[in-house]
Amino acid sequence: MDHQTLVGALMNPGFYAHPVNRVEYIQTHISSVFLTGEYAYKLKKPVDFGFLDFTTPEKRRINCEAEVELNRRLAPAVYLRVAPICLVDGTPVIDGPGEAIDSLVVMRQMDNDRLGPEVLARGELDEAKVDALVEVLVPFYEAARTGEGIDQYGTIESVKFNTDENFNQTEAFVGAAITQQQFKEIRDRTNGFFENNKDLFERRIAQGRIRESHGDLHLGNVFFEPGRPVIFDCIEFNERFRCGDVAVDLAFLAMDLDFQGRPELAQHFIDEYVKRSGDSELRLLLDFYRTYRAYVRGKIACFTSSDPALEPKAKEQHLQLASRYFSLAHGYATNL
Description:
Helices cover 49% and strands 14% of the residues. The protein is α+β, with helices and mostly antiparallel strands. The protein has two domains: 3-109, Phosphorylase Kinase, domain 1 (2-Layer Sandwich); 116-333, Aminoglycoside phosphotransferase (APH), C-terminal lobe (Aminoglycoside 3'-phosphotransferase, Chain: A, domain 2). The longest helix has 23 residues, at 283-305.
């Protein structure tokens, strides 16, 4: 059964075993999400982007299971289980008898008013909320997997593979979303940082700073629940994007706060993390990884602008967004 047919079934309130008045449908480039009031259901799209492959029911099931397992580290009350979709007399049914034709991630639905960007927009994101976030993150990184199988992602060779990939994938957008000068200077300063900081990368590995982290730590993936923030939607589909120096994760949120016009909160976030963790050396990597994170966001905006289904105005908006991220990356890179 194809994805769109399953989407149609999941849009029907009668599809679910619990009472549902209406279903809200949200689409991302890799998933279809259905909000039912009490629970949220995520159906992965049958796509292959190279860095992820969801093209078969088995691959989607494996990634659903990984998503639940990995996200329970930071959001155990949100990620509930993986549910099979089975065919019963030709009709898709959750938890039905027989062989599964697809899988769903079942989550407790959270209050969107507490999502990071909403809290920020209301002017309610303050140092106390940032401190609460740090209180969650410090023990998370301390307990996260490290050592064999993980440390390789902190080597210069591994990190440079990621940065080279970014530059190769954005060359076609030079002149449209990033200037030739910006592109060259970001690339040259990034590569120069590798040359000048070989000992630093090696020390970070020796100190156990390479961890199986979150991989997508920005405000849009944080619910500021009273007392304890809930961090969700980590990267399950590619270990290379999830694992690395803890500074990669921290730089993402710091960059996001800078981008949203709250550099003082970004500074407070890093200061508080360093104070609580004792990891003062991460400051030496901060601009490097903020450059990387801003560049990745610019790249994604470029990719989105290339969608042939987009109207010209939407295409231009995504290119402008990419340009803003690339300008931010360039600003960080000048400090390298």
